[in-house]
Amino acid sequence: MEDIKKRIKNIKLWNGIFSIVSLLSTFVGLVLLFALMTDLFMDGAPRISYKFFTSFPSRFPEEAGILSAWVGTLLLILVTAFAAIPLGVAAGIYLEEYAGKNWFTDIIEINIANLAGVPSIIYGLLALGIFVYFFKFGESVLTGGLALALLILPMVIMATREAIRAVPNSIREASYAVGATKWQTVKWHIIPYSTGGILTGIIIGLSRAIGETAPIITVGALTFIAFLPASPVSTEFPFISFKWLLDPFTVMPIQIFNWVSRPQQGFHVNAAAAGIVLLVMTLFMNAAAIYIRYRFRKKIKW
Questions:
Q1: Helices 2-44 and 265-301 sit at what angle, rounded to 10 degrees?
Q2: pTM
Q3: Of the four, 10, 89, 120, 134, which is 20 to 30 A from 156 by CA?
Q4: pLDDT digits (tens, 9 = 90+) for 31-67
Q5: Residue 206 contacts residue 131 (beta carbons within 8 Å)
Q6: How many Å is the Cα radius of gyration of the chain?
């Protein structure tokens, strides 16, 4: 009896120690993050203005802006989302709901998990060989978007599969019991209930893509660009233009890297201001995902 009490006491002691260490680790991480964000805002906030958003890069730091960078970032993320989300979600649904459990699907699953940990520069080299040299897309928005789509595709597939696995089997059995087909079960029950987890994986992937630099530089993104890609809206029927897909581009991370590498202090201030804008864009994406997830869960609840 004494041994049992002593063992329980030791377990409680180690649990308490582990809780304290975990709390301290979390606190240290939050303090460092807060310090970095405070320093970033103190340096860059005074530089943020309407002119900063509507001006092209310049040799003079006080006249330089991020117009071409933030427009290029939005267009790149748009292409990435349209390429990676449908393909990744469809692949995740197929592997989890339709594919048989055999050695072939096991190999696919292992390769998807391994691809999620491949360095981003490898995806840049892959995109350079396939999209630039083989398909002749050139150093364009389309090439950059497809490169980032390859980068986040394994993450979207894995997130989709994990979200589908979290759906209770009782929902599937109830759907089959009333005569629903496999596709009807997936469409009306599995996908709606797993939407929250799928969206979380998608946003995490896009948040990573919006800050990537290595694959974008590899496929030929420009470090200095004083013009915008062609407008996606046309004055002629069908009023939509896709010329911008093949135009040169730059993005926020490359613009920040370019300014940080300059010796003038004014460019460093510009880099801090651009970093704030990039951070706000990422937070906005996460906020949008939280709102959409809330709406889906509310709809399912009712």
A1: 130
A2: 0.86
A3: 134
A4: 988 888 888 888 888 888 889 998 888 888 888 889 8
A5: no
A6: 24
